[in-house]
Amino acid sequence: MRVFDVGFTMNAKRGLDDDNVESPLRICNMEHREQKAKICFNFRSNLFVLVVFAVGLACGILIGIYAYHGSKNMNSYQGQSYQGTKLDDKIPATSPKINIEQCPNKNPNNYAPYESSLFAPLTTKEMKEVSEILWQRRYITTIGQTPSSLKESFIVFMYLYPPRKEDAIKYLYHNGMKPSRYAKVHIQRGAIPVPDVMEYKVGPLGSLPEATIIPLTSPGEIHFNSRIYGMVEENALNYILNREMKVLETLMRESFDGATFPDDLYINYQNGPPGMTAAERETRFIIGFRAVEDGDVLNFLPLSGTVHNPGTNVSEWYSHSYYYLNQGPYSTASDLVAAYNNNMIRKVRLPQEYRSKLRKNAFPQRDHSLPLREHADQPGARSYMPKGPRFSINGTKIKWMGWSFHISGGQLRGPALFDIRFKGNQIAYELALNDISLVYAMDSSGHNNIIYMDASYGIMGGYTPTTIFRDVDCPSYAAVLNTSYWSSLYQKAIDMKSICVFEADGHEALWRHFSGNFSGGMRNRYLVVRVPVVVGNYDYIFEFQFYLDGRLYTKGKATGYILTSFWDEHNPNVGGEKARDAFGYRVSQYQTGPIHDHTFGFKVDMDVIDSNNSFETIHWKAGNVYDALRTLSNITQVPPYFIYNETRYLKFETMQKEAGCRLDYNNQKLFVLVNENKRNRWGVKRGYRIVPLTTGAQSISEEHPAMKALSFTKYHMTVTKRKEEEMYLSSIYDINRMDSPKGHLDLMLDNESIVNEDIVNWITFGVLHVPTSEDFPMTPSMESGFLLKPFNFFDTTPTFDMPQYLEEHGTSNVEHEPAFDTCVEPNTEY
Q1: Catalytic-labelled residue, pool 538, 585, 715, 728
Q2: pLDDT tens, 264-302?
Q3: Burial of 441 (0-12, 13-18, 19+ CB in 10 A)
Q4: Is 454 designated active site?
Q5: Domains of the chain, CATH where assigned
Q6: CA 323 to CA 329: how far, in whole Å?
Q7: Which of 396, 408, 403, 407 minimizes the C-alpha distance to 426?
Q8: What is the DSSP letter of 106?
Q9: Which of 257, 419, 435, 454 is catalytic?
Q10: Where 2',4',5'-topaquinone occurs along the chain (predicted)?
Q11: Tens digit of each residue's pLDDT (9 = 90 or more) over 467-522
């Protein structure tokens, strides 16, 4: 072999037809057959071995290349999102192509008209119809376009007027007639001799000639001075204060780093309430820097005042009570300037170039002066649907894994769900956000004792429309639904992408167990309905989570900008420590973060199997054995098998009359809504437990001027008999008429029986917010909520109709979740 190899190599260089060399090819043509046969046999054998070796080597190299590049490409590309339908184009041309299909991209929404749904929010088409109906009745509205004066009558709010529950239940469960759709409309009537605010019910929608307009309030019932703030009024306030800003021009330049109005400064209003009685209208204002695009609440300045602005006659309005560094009040801007020029008051001088840094400090953007965290330049973990969505949307009706419900909501109150069912069982008729209250405390002439009730401004469409940020609010594969709100400024309906729906992976066990005989568990997946909204400086995110075991988790989150107050280190109220005061911490060079709360109020109309329910309070007790056993029996002595006379036990109480409930962790209770007439297999009343997960409680006293309007915040839960006219737990006008509120929750507590009745739970939860430097400039979300949980509702764990993980050791009893083929995450945007 060695000679052969060498000879072959040599002759390959010299040429196989060289006459001086007897190459193997020439030898095979020799006339001597024996020698030729021997030599040819050796040559052919060696050539065969060489060919086999070469082919094997080539195949090995190709397999190695394929394995290396294939696994590398799979790791690099699997799970990424591309525009194409296959991965082929993303793999280098030198590598073998891997045909990995894009995951199914089925749209769960059939885009049925909202108008066909019983509970759907009003559409822009319906709002336009309502505005035309009202415009034709000139005695109700006097303008059909942007209003320019408070002396005009125009539409302020518009949203769905939900059907009567009795009619809806007949339609949903007993083949009754479908209720017609109606709109509820708020009209600010400035054109009539005695201005007021009116509410109307307009409809049926879709029948323009036959539509009726039904007054829901009496003329004068809602005083004009209790009206909700709007841009028409703000424009009038600006007209009054523009003259005063010119008077204050030198003071502002010297104090605030050369700032001028309106180029560098703006006026912030709506620091409510606007008075202690319905007839008053006093609007406090404060000056702030223009550092970010919307109203900057991070850079308020120590200059404030008040405008007396009742009625519609702007010529009679005037400003008064001016303060500078909390020094005042001065009757007019001129009086303040005179005191300033005569050095009669303390002064502030912001450093030069201070204004040039405001936007950088306030605008939420990455700090490029800092290095990225390790691996932050790599994409984070993602979820997607390997076989497409498992939920469906028909108009506003959602179905997923045994759950079904309708999505709704309105401009003022926010998101709502109706007709919630699980595995065909009625769970709740209505689950709806009603209001959000905030009570601030700070040492500021322009901001002290601020109270907000956000329904007054419009939770789901007010000054700022809502829009979904994909991959921030919701994953890219989420389905997005539109809602509409009425713009009082432009007198037209505006669409917005405001609700997203998706299935989420909890990346945890819903339940599990591991033992020597078997391993079993189920992965926790749930459906999410998420609604982000903007109310001024705060963004709220409301979320409903539907679980495979029948639980329903409702929560609210607060994020966005905190409202700040000016930090004055020479303020005599601060004391020796220059980092905090009685109302909060210093969070930046010239700002503090004042304490406040966010209290969310929800209407929860549970129907456990049907509308006849009772409310049980189960007391979690500890005491002696005798007291424990006497809760349900008539024993006279303690059984001997108790090793000591101390135990935990439950004490059951059925609430007889309407009442408010407060959480007390020293006296813990379980709240359960039960159906007295429906029992599970074991004879136990079927029910749902309400689990408040609140972190806050109301601390202001009953004597506080706003406590009646805020009465829903006194309780963590209030139980009342359902009445059609008691639609909400608050009135949007009550904070503007604190002396005589007409729509607060306490009015519903009239001692009616709630046993075996259609009852409503008004659930309140919230957070206490003490802003710190980590909340500046942007507040990480804070959350709270409540859980609705099956409580003897089923006979057993209700998830055994789902595929699960099970491996029984030593047997063939094995089960896993449905398998799926590897696919590329689709670039989904429904």
Answers
A1: 538
A2: 999 999 777 898 899 999 999 999 999 876 668 999 999
A3: middle
A4: yes
A5: 2-90 (no CATH), 117-226 (3.10.450.40), 231-359 (3.10.450.40), 425-463+536-789 (2.70.98.20)
A6: 5
A7: 403
A8: -
A9: 454
A10: 538
A11: 898 889 999 899 999 999 999 999 999 999 999 999 999 999 999 999 988 999 99
